[in-house]
Amino acid sequence: MGKFIIRKQKNDEYMFNLKAGNGEIILTSEGYKAKDSCKKGIESVRINSQIDSRYERKETVSNKYYFVLKAGNGEPIGKSQFYLTKQSMEIGIASVKGNAPDAEIVDETI
Fold first, then answer.
1. Between vectors from CA 92 to CA 86 and to CA 98, what angle results, nearest 5°?
2. DSSP-derived secondary structure letter, 20
3. Spatial distance between the Cα atoms of 7 and 58, rounded to a whole number of angstroms
4. Three-state secondary structure call for residue 81
5. Alpha helix positions (H), the chain
6. In terms of C-beta density within 10 A (0-12 exposed, 13-18 middle, 19 or more buried), how is residue 73 classed?
7. If you count Cβ atoms within 10 Å of the first and of the last residue's Cβ in the chain, which end, N or C, has fewer?
């Protein structure tokens, strides 16, 4: 089962990682000024992760692949790691879709 891990960064912003059951980070958020906003970002991932059109699939100039999960308003809510193939990127998207809805929230800032 996946987990959302909330952390506080050195710049005092909050962020989260979505980890798959095997501990791999499959989605990383942007920074949030408030913890409540970070938690709202997690809820947005839970909802938007199930809508395939919310995943923007991208390729770097060095031929690596990654995706950005966007909210309904088009704002990014999470980004993946880099993948060597399109197929592995699609597996990453499937992992987010499978893990996000029921992932436990672990607040490491407490």
1. 140
2. -
3. 26
4. coil
5. 35-48, 86-99
6. exposed
7. C
Residue 110 banded pLDDT, cuts 50, 70, 90 = confident
Angle, vertex CA 79, rays to CA 19 and CA 104, nearest 5:
30
The span from the CA of 42 to the CA of 58, in Å, is 22
Alpha carbon distance 109, 80 (integer Å): 23
Mean pLDDT value of segment 83-98:
97
Number of residues assigned to the chain: 110
- pLDDT, residue 99, reads 97
Q: Supply the pTM of this predicted model.
A: 0.94
pLDDT per residue as tens digits for the range 28-87: 999 999 999 999 999 999 999 999 999 999 999 999 999 999 999 999 999 999 999 999
Residue 84 falls in which region: left (phi positive, over 0), alpha (psi -120 to 50) or beta: alpha
**Single-letter amino acid, residue 19:** K
Report residue 107 as tokens: 């607040």
**Residue whose structure tokens are 């952390």:** 7
Here the tokens at position 77 are 């809510």
